[in-house]
Amino acid sequence: MSSDRLPVSIASLAGDGEDTVKITLPTSRDDRVEKVPTLKVVAGPGRDMLRFWTLGTDERMIIGRDERAAAVVLSDVTVSKRHAVLTTDDSGAVMVEDLGSTNGSAVNGVTIDRPTPLHPGDDLEIGGVLLRLEMLSSDELAHLDRVKRRLSEAGSDPLTCLRTRRYLEEELPALVARIRQAGRPMCCAFLDLDRFKSINDTYGHQVGDEVLARTSRIILGDVREQDTAVRYGGEEIVLFMPDTGRTEAVKVAERLRRKIADHHWYRTAPDLRVTASFGVAQLRPDESIDAFLRRVDAAMYRAKATGKNRVCAAD
Fold first, then answer.
1. DSSP β-ladder status, 84-88 and 94-98
2. Looking at residue 154, what is its pLDDT?
């Protein structure tokens, strides 16, 4: 018997003159994967989003803006230098206490003034930054670590940390050639932030830049390592998804659309709402890259023309 399988238990039960076989199904090893308590930034300045810290037992971690004093360093100006302290006991239970910060701390929207338990799934507000305590597997932590490395890759756009348009000329043709040689599918999603000029005009270009930075991190935190996001120009982003068919690519685009629309944008500016329109297309046999991008671009403009904040797939 393979060590990856657990035995099936079989018992014979009498009933109605027949023997009924009862089986106890094996427990999947996936259900017993060890998970690590992890504090992750889910809303805050673009430079802080997707940062994470794993928690051990018997730890005391200062949260704040002071890099010398804090173990959990946040860059937002609403965070005090020594804002709060996070402690764990020998059982792994987590407590958080505000340290007399200027803007206060809250757990699940309730301001705290004494040591307060923090459970998996709870939201922790540190000034204007929203963190969440999650239980993450080693695979999930490895994904976050890869995203962290992506954010500091050389040759990336300095604002969004996405690849620049040079990718289209220097690396995309080779990727398309490999995909075709292997006979595998490839899709592209083209997204454009809706009413972005209005955001700049209403809130200023600093907020517009912050929207672009956060949107890019929402994308990078969601897609696979083999997917490549490119800042195409302004508020336009192109996502290349090798080994992905049209149906799956539409699901990815729809998931990203929802995450952008549901993000905590009010933390960036009062009443700020951000949505995006997506076009999706699958690469055709013998189709040029230019023709491929024109089709996905046309699908995106159709999403814009038919109401925005939606996904349209090319024929």
1. antiparallel
2. 63
Q: Which residues pair with 85 in a beta bridge?
A: 62, 97
CB 39 within 8 A of CB 52: yes
Calculated CA dihedral for residues 256, 260, 263, 269, nearest 10 degrees: 160
Amino acid (1-letter code) at residue 178: R
CA 263/CA 222 separation, integer angstroms: 13
> Is 76 within 8 Å of 166 (Cβ atoms)?
no
Q: Taking Cα atoms as reference points, which of 172, 198, 124, 154 lies closest to residue 296?
A: 172
Using alpha carbons only, give the angle 298, 304, 310 rounded to the nearest 5 degrees.
100
Determine the residue type at 216.
S
**Separation CA 171–CA 272 (nearest Å):** 36
Catalytic residue positions?
A: 235
Cβ neighbours of residue 143 closer than 8 Å, sequence gap 6 or more: 225
Residue-level pLDDT at 19: 52
Task: List the one residue out of 273, 279, 284 whose CA is nearest residue 254.
Answer: 279
Q: What is the pLDDT of residue 91?
A: 84
* pLDDT given for residue 38 in this prediction: 93
